[in-house]
Amino acid sequence: MDIALITGSAGLIGAESVRFFSRKGFTVVGIDNDMRKVFFGDEASTKWSLKKLESDIKDYIHYNEDIRDKTAMEAIFKKYAKDIKLIIHTAAQPSHDWAAKDPFTDFTVNANGTLTLLEMTRQYCPDAVFIFTSTNKVYGDTPNDLPLVELETRWEIDESHPYFANGIDESMSVDQTKHSLFGASKLAADVLVQEYGRYFNMKTVCFRGGCLTGPGHSSTELHGFLAYLMKCAVTGKHYTIFGYKGKQLRDNIHSYDLVNAFWHFYQKPRMGEVYNMGGGRHSNCSMLEAIAMCEEITRKKMNYSYTESNRIGDHIWWISDVSKFRSHYPGWNYKYNIKDILIEIFTYGNL
């Protein structure tokens, strides 16, 4: 029996991973205690997702445990040690706004929780592949220092810059920049994942995601940009654009495309690797462009307003350069673009 152990298993990427790797023949052990509800309230609860997983996947095994609890994690790892082939760690406190309200919880979930999982992996299944969903916030607000050009509906990078063609690569500095406390805690986890790979020769990888999205998102105002935007478009709920004239640009990757990248890495793992992973030049939009697409899809005008105050440490322009990953795994490609994603959220999302 090959086991995939997935944390945050009822969340967007976790649940996509459960389904994907179950289809690949893995027995999936999930860990998720619905902290998303604690962070963001009832509308962000993943309880609905867990119920669907347990209904759809008969051999799915679930643990309602906290990844910070070393005793609980050790018991799970001990029980399945000889069969664990893959750990996908998606559990996190994901909002930079929320992190500032409770830095201790943010750091212990993101950094200490990751350390606990890495150490359990090293002690009980050191040959397993360890995949970590990191974030582009490890680069802080350094991207805002790039030479940006204001266009009609978006900010863009100057065409003469090396990043124009494919986006920002992994060589960008993570130092001396405003990360947000969330970015700092995720960076601590990111470095730990790399270090366990390089120091202990473990098969670890950090996928530094841009906007991760899809119909499985339990979206809320503080996290889940595209899904929350579509929820507001459908329900008529008010949406607030924070700063940058609504022209801030994000690349967006569908949860399936990211998890498919996990699968490619699993089949040919490396040690202490790092990849920027997002929609790249294939799938991206500004806030204004996303609103226009939502209005086109729903055939309704959105109820939104604008405030000059941007979120602290927020990016004005972000496009992920996925060239490094593609060079290592040329068989991987996108299935969804930005329009496909929004249509699927509208059709099947938890709105």
Word description of this protein:
Helix content is 39%, strand content 18%. It has helices at residues 12-23, 35-40, 47-56, 70-80, 96-99, 103-124, 181-200, 225-235, 255-267, 287-298, 323-328, 338-348, and strands at residues 3-7, 27-31, 61-63, 84-89, 129-135, 148-150, 155-157, 203-209, 211-213, 239-242, 249-254, 273-277, 284-286, 304-307. A seven-stranded parallel β-sheet has the order 3-2-1-4-5-8-12, with helices on both faces. A three-stranded mixed β-sheet has the order 9-11-13. A two-stranded antiparallel ribbon has the order 6-7. The protein starts with a strand and ends with a helix. By secondary structure, it is an alpha/beta fold.
Produce the secondary structure layout.
Layout: E1 3-7, H1 12-23, E2 27-31, H2 35-40, H3 47-56, E3 61-63, H4 70-80, E4 84-89, H5 96-99, H6 103-124, E5 129-135, E6 148-150, E7 155-157, H7 181-200, E8 203-209, E9 211-213, H8 225-235, E10 239-242, E11 249-254, H9 255-267, E12 273-277, E13 284-286, H10 287-298, E14 304-307, H11 323-328, H12 338-348
Helix pairs in contact: 1-9, 4-6, 6-7, 8-10, 10-12
Largest sheet: 7 strands, parallel
Termini gap:
37 Å
Provide the residue-averaged pLDDT: 96
Helix proportion range: 25-40%
Number of helices: 12
Percent range for β-strand residues? 15-25%
CATH 2nd-level architecture:
3-Layer(aba) Sandwich
Write down the overall geometry. globular
